[in-house]
Specification:
The chain has three domains: 178 residues, FAD/NAD(P)-binding domain; 91 residues, no CATH class; 104 residues, Protoporphyrinogen oxidase, mitochondrial, domain 2 (Polyamine Oxidase, Chain A, domain 2). It is globular. It has 15 helices and 19 strands. Helix 1 links the parallel strand 1 and strand 2. The strands form five sheets. The protein has a seven-stranded mixed β-sheet with strand order 7-6-15-16-17-14-18, sandwiched between helices. About 1% of the residues have low confidence. Helix 1 packs parallel to helix 14, helix 3 crosses helix 6 and helix 4 packs across helix 5. The protein is an alpha/beta fold. The structure holds flavin-adenine dinucleotide. The site of flavin-adenine dinucleotide has 36 residues, from helix 1, strand 10, helix 13 and helix 14.
Length: 465
């Protein structure tokens, strides 16, 4: 079997398959494994790609994580907040924290919005048509305009053009009724909207993919890095071999089953080279890009939180993350490393801005937010990633369905992962997908049926903050 991509999704599939005794080869284009879940060294720190925690509400996945990483897991009680209206508030938001900040007019408007949303919930609602619709129905216009609208614009784009699936996957509450119940202490935060704790692998998040990789090898699997898939060999509706180039040499990897976690555009190109129609359809699936701005500051710690959300437009980033909050040993004493994540599109003002300018903008925002002073900056740099945020536009599901029909002509192909399946997910979901694929193979299910099963399964995934 050949697995394309050595991020967590590809490595997880390879791990479960190798453990079951299948011969597996992973093909990773980059020199390092782990994809966005990998860690790297810089300025004396071990750094992650933004805040990464290990947590799951998918049955059995936390046990899988414990059995993989054992006593290397640090258990954290989650501390995170949101910056709104010049204050830091607990996250997920509660009305109790919010109302005193609003002033009578805004509070009344927000209260009316809530009341209407609660009443709407009690009376039963029509199906929401978009992300905006979903949030308005559940939270009312006040909270929508304050939090969810600016956050959506920053991370994904126009909320009227975004699918309701995105809201379902990403918003940590089922609505105003639940928030009011929580405010009145009639209901506790449940673990499927707010992780009560999370795990972090000692030594950096990259220890997680590294452990998966060492398990793949221990079970006899092969992993090729700096290896680029150049062509597929097709026969009788299946992919029979992958031709790979690495270190100037090429190799033919025979494959009974092909698992792909690489971007769909790259896969389509390999599968149907010269099919302009397929390439155009895949090109319409929008993935937003990511710029991670790292700042090294001359102070021991910046905040007490693991991360803080910054939905307001005046802050250039979505979130602030302090690496030492996960594991204090990841950097030298007297210094701290901050990562600010910015969603962008190749060629836009953020993507094209020089590193120094982005570092300066983020530093200015941290100063404005009362967290540091300009003289503390010791170093700053930027890492950019193409195509990492699947943008669920209102028509994405139909388009994805059409693309899947075309790709499924390769009968021994299964897709997995975040960019591989165009699914908004976290690393625990990637682990679950790998487990699902191996269970299907063990049961003798065909790759096409496993893929269809995964399509169903990924719709239930929720990102838990
Ligand atoms: C800011 C941020 C915060 C996050 N927080 C969390 C969190 O708290 N917890 C959590 O669990 N998840 C979190 N995630 C999500 C997590 O990063 C993803 O779910 C996970 O990385 C997806 O893994 P993947 O293997 O599907 O994709 P990737 O990590 O993108 O891996 C794909 C791999 O394929 C390789 N590749 C690409 N093209 C080719 C090719 N042509 N040939 C061969 N190889 C190729 C790439 O180099 C890469 O290694 C976060 C993500 C971001 C951006």
């Amino acid at each position: 079997m050949v697995v394309l991509g050595g991020g967590v999704a590809g490595l997880a599939a390879a791990y479960y398959l190798a453990r079951d005794g299948w011969p597996v080869t992973v093909v990773e284009r980059a020199a390092a494994l782990g994809g966005l879940c990998g860690s790297f060294q810089s300025h004396g720190f071990t750094l992650d790609h933004g805040p990464h925690k290990l947590y799951s509400v998918v049955p059995g996945i936390l046990d899988e994580i414990r059995s993989l990483l054992g006593d290397r897991l640090i258990e954290h009680k989650k501390r995170n907040r949101i910056r709104l209206l010049g204050r830091y508030l607990d996250y997920p938001l509660s009305l109790g924290n919010l109302l005193p900040l609003l002033g009578p007019r805004r509070a009344a408007r927000l209260g009316l919005g809530y009341a209407a949303a609660v009443a709407g919930g009690a009376l039963g609602r029509r199906d929401p048509a978009s992300y905006e619709d979903y949030v308005l129905q559940r939270f009312g216009r006040g909270v929508y305009e304050l939090v969810f609208e600016p956050l959506a614009w920053k991370v994904w784009g126009d909320p009227r053009q975004l699918s309701v699936d995105l809201a379902r996957a990403r918003i940590p509450s089922s609505g105003a009724t639940e928030l009011v119940l929580r405010l009145l202490k009639l209901k506790e935060n449940s673990e499927d909207v707010d992780a009560p704790f999370f795990y972090y692998p000692r030594g950096g998040f990259g220890e997680f993919p590294a452990r998966l990789a060492s398990e793949v090898r221990r079970h006899g699997g092969r992993i090729l890095t700096s290896a680029v898939p150049r062509a597929f060999e097709r026969a009788n509706g299946s992919v029979r071999a992958v031709h790979v180039e690495s270190a100037g040499a090429s190799e033919r990897l025979a494959c009974a089953t092909l698992v792909s976690s690489i971007p769909m555009a790259s896969l389509a190109q390999l599968l149907q080279p010269g099919d302009a129609g397929l390439a155009a359809e895949v090109g319409q699936l929008r993935l937003r890009d990511l710029a991670l701005v790292y700042l090294v500051l001359g102070q021991e710690r910046l905040v007490d939180d693991h991360w803080i959300f910054f939905p307001e437009r005046r802050y250039p980033f979505n979130r602030l993350f302090e690496q030492k909050s996960m594991d204090a040993s990841l950097g030298p004493p007297g210094l701290t490393a901050i990562c600010c994540d910015l969603t962008c599109d190749e060629g836009d003002a953020v993507w094209a801005a020089p590193d120094d300018e982005l570092v300066r903008r983020c530093l200015d925002a941290l100063v404005e937010a009362g967290l540091t002073t300009p003289d503390k900056l010791r170093a700053g740099f930027v890492r950019r990633f193409r195509s990492f945020y699947p943008m669920y536009t209102v028509d994405y599901r139909e388009r994805l369905g059409r693309i899947y029909v075309r790709l499924k002509q390769a009968e021994n192909l299964v897709l997995t992962g975040r960019v591989g399946m165009f699914n908004y997910n976290n690393s625990d979901h990637c682990l679950d997908m790998g487990r699902f694929i191996a269970a299907g193979m063990a049961a003798g299910t065909s790759p096409g049926e496993i893929w269809s099963g995964l399509e169903e399964r990924v719709r239930s995934y929720r990102i838990i903050d």
